[in-house]
Amino acid sequence: MGFLQALGSLLSGGNRQVEILVIGLDNSGKTTILNQLKPPESQSANIIPTVGYSAERFTAANMTFTGISLL
Length: 71
Hints:
Elements: H1 3-10, E1 16-23, H2 30-37, E2 53-60, E3 63-70
């Protein structure tokens, strides 16, 4: 069972909104972690360094995620 399926089973019910804020040092993999949480069909093949911040919204495991990566 994947992380998102386990989280979805704990928060069972209707479609939920989840906000994820990732803060860390330069080149520490913040955007990569958010990319790995996305469903395989919406993952990016090429990840470029983030300047400032990046905000993405995606749906997985019956939950809508808003992921924000800050530099």
